[in-house]
Amino acid sequence: MSRETFIHILPLHRLLLPLLFVLISVSGVIGDEEKKFYIAFLGDHPVNADSTLELHVNLLSSVKESPLDAAESMVYSYSKSFNAFAAKLSQDEANQLSGMDEVLAVIPNQYHKLHTTKSWDFLGLPQTAKRRLKTESDMIVALFDTGITPHADSFKDEGFGRPPSKWKGTCGRFANFSGCNNKIIGARYFKLDGTPDPQDILSPVDVDGHGTHTSSTLAGNLVKNASLFGIAQGTARGAVPSARVAMYKVCWVSFGCSDMDILAAFDAAIKDGVDIISISIGGISPNYTSDSIAVGAFHAMSKGILTVASGGNDGPNLGSVSNHAPWILTAAASGIDRDFRSTVRLGNGIKNISGIGVSAFNPKQELYPLVNGADAARNSESKDFARFCMQDSLDPAKVKGKLVYCKLGTGGTDSIVRGIGGVGLIVESDEFLDAAEIFMAPGTVVNGITGGLIENYIHSTRSPSAVIYRTQETRRAPAPFVASFSSRGPSPGTQRLLKPDIVAPGVNILAAYTPIKSITGLKGDTQYSKFTIMSGTSMSCPHTAGVAAYVKSFHPNWSPAAIKSAILTTATPMSRRVNKDSEFAFGAGQVSPTRAVNPGLVYDMDELAYIQFLCHEGYKDSTLVVLVGSKSINCSTLLPGRGYDALNYPTMQFSLENSQEPTTGVFRRTVTNVGPAISIYNATINAPRGVEITVRPTSLSFSRVLQKRSFTVIVKAKPMPILQMVSGSLVWGSSRHIVRSPIVVYRPDAEGS
Ligand SMILES: *[C@@H]1O[C@H](CO)[C@@H](O)[C@H](O)[C@H]1NC(C)=O
Ligand SMILES: *[C@@H]1O[C@H](CO)[C@@H](O)[C@H](O)[C@H]1NC(C)=O
Ligand SMILES: *[C@@H]1O[C@H](CO)[C@@H](O)[C@H](O)[C@H]1NC(C)=O
Ligand SMILES: *[C@@H]1O[C@H](CO)[C@@H](O)[C@H](O)[C@H]1NC(C)=O
Ligand SMILES: *[C@@H]1O[C@H](CO)[C@@H](O)[C@H](O)[C@H]1NC(C)=O
Ligand SMILES: *[C@@H]1O[C@H](CO)[C@@H](O)[C@H](O)[C@H]1NC(C)=O
């Protein structure tokens, strides 16, 4: 079972230097036996934290030598929202434990690598948008992340009253963290392995910057004249500036985010009374019962809390989407109409070149000597590495005072070039051109064709020279587009569900940052800023969670499924021409906050519906206990879910079998009227070539609010080549609303992906 969790952010140096990310094994060796952390799930029981701990220790004692030994190995007792404990066990002890009647499942704890402002105007949520300020200020948004910066302007509490009475969480004073205010109402951390992290602080304070950024995107106050050294200037604000923030720090600079800590955060946040949970951390385990985010999000959903999670930065590979459980709202990342470009002037003066990236430096000279890294190697052996400007490959004497041209190998080459006396660099890459990398020295990224021109120029003259000007903000068309890095469907978890669900901005997002770390975090960087630019589904996730909180501020009683449905059916469809993976890249489309508040109809679901779905997917009763506790689900006696996917999802995906004949899938859906009492909706079908789609009935009439109406969608598809995908849609339209569901037809390969 391999699952990796990343903070879903995308500076090139994180993305390209996985080796820098030291994965520290935290298994202690005691005697000859290696002990590791495990999480044991138990059945439901009356929730009483004190007696639960005792019960957990007693249970553990039966596989340990003594109660003392058991108490010492116990790491955490999850008792608030579900019944489980984490402990350090040998393989043998774990096996014994899972054989016990009271223990429903034992899963190993895994360590996972870490995976503005203008964006809200672009989405049609201007500062003047209609708001329900009272209910918005009662919204509590939870983030599981790297911590938060309490003194940031985005989290000042001027004008905020006391926390809403439903809040049951805590906030303390910790090292380098002076406590909460009426904006940040909760802040705690979980680091259950007990292993110190030399690069982090045992405190909710954000040493990394990621958590500060995501929190301010979701719920930051309005901050005027925010920018990164004057770049991307504007008013920074979150989706719900009046909402309260609860930070649960579960990600650590050197370790990443562990299952034990993520589950502890869920256990606490659910009990604390949060409204929405935003998780910009990913997992790739396709199994919903062994993935801590899927498991935790299920418990949250069953208590009425929607979890929004990042879909991952593993695009454009198909089948790369993560956090795809049906009860999670999975966010892909799009670019808006903004680009950050630097002009490069070559010494021959013929033509200026445009590169991508953020470089805040004004040149001090008219031109600088320019050298190709390949020509500045330390020796003949290092030549292959020097092309990529890798550590220790360049001769400082050949680089000093010069701009260096290199191919993209690893990230962080600006630090390397700078460290040996170079001025800056031009990086050639055909990948990752969507997102602007921030440089700690004059720098920019050019594509392969432009790179070729630069190489030719360097070889055409005895003393090549160039200059990189400070970055300018430029317009980009067409927008929005799905970022190349944004993970794609189809879902590795099931063939019957479209994922990702939705797209929100995740490219070049300006938001608050930590004062503790330099902008790039690279050696030698002395740039610090209260705001910075980041890219990744880590950024689209809080945008989406912010829209969910915005919708919930209008409809505090809506279920997680209803909020998700409202966001999906009102999304703006994206261009299939610009985004060639179409729905596998953008799901239902780009979030549209103001429309999502007033969707007309919703596809609602409760906890049981998801269980019916899992039974339909072939999950065994015995593994479902991780989700439902000891409510003893028996799939064979449970009312079977209806239709092809056994789910009342607002989108539809039909996967074709290997057949020479047309195949038919029948989807059964029920919509709830949340618009005007008396409404009539007519169906419009848009079927792709080779697919026949019919809906019965074709008209739905409602005479009261919350009335439900059911319908059937029949999809009949001709055989298709392997890995082909086509898509259409079903739109229910009334005189006031448009309720749109994409319908995807896909032919998986033999392995089912
Ligand atoms: C945390 O606080 C300690 C003690 O005041 C201080 O020495 C240290 O520099 C602080 N660390 C950071 C990263 O701010
Ligand atoms: C806005 O920010 C820029 C860059 O930080 C600064 O130079 C400028 O003085 C600020 N303007 C105002 C009106 O505060
Ligand atoms: C290149 O850019 C510089 C700085 O913007 C400008 O002064 C110069 O005229 C440009 N040269 C050409 C050939 O466009
Ligand atoms: C999911 O994981 C559990 C625990 O490892 C395993 O028992 C179960 O068979 C898996 N389910 C599926 C559908 O893969
Ligand atoms: C589930 O129900 C079926 C049919 O009633 C029964 O045969 C089976 O033993 C039950 N399974 C469990 C685990 O109770
Ligand atoms: C729905 O269809 C009926 C019957 O064709 C028609 O009278 C009505 O105007 C349609 N309503 C809408 C909103 O399109």
UniProtKB/TrEMBL annotation:
All residue ranges annotated as the Subtilisin-like protease fibronectin type-III domain in the record: 647-745
A biological process term (GO) from this entry: proteolysis
Domain Peptidase S8/S53 stretches: 138-589
Cross-referenced InterPro entries: Peptidase_S8/S53_dom, Peptidase_S8/S53_dom_sf, Peptidase_S8_Ser-AS, Peptidase_S8_subtilisin-rel, Peptidases_S8_3, S8pro/Inhibitor_I9, S8pro/Inhibitor_I9_sf, SBT
Signal peptide: 1-31
Active-site residues, record numbering mapped to chain: 145 (charge relay system), 210 (charge relay system), 538 (charge relay system)
PROSITE patterns linked: SUBTILASE, SUBTILASE_SER
GO CC, one annotated term: extracellular region
Annotated ranges, domain Inhibitor I9: 46-115
Pfam families in the record: fn3_6, Inhibitor_I9, Peptidase_S8
Location of this chain's protein in the cell: Secreted
UniProt keyword list: Hydrolase, Protease, Secreted, Serine protease, Signal
Gene Ontology MF term list: serine-type endopeptidase activity
Family indicated by similarity: Belongs to the peptidase S8 family.
Protein name, entry field: Xylem serine proteinase 1
Native source organism of the sequence: Morella rubra
Organism taxonomic ancestry: Eukaryota, Viridiplantae, Streptophyta, Embryophyta, Tracheophyta
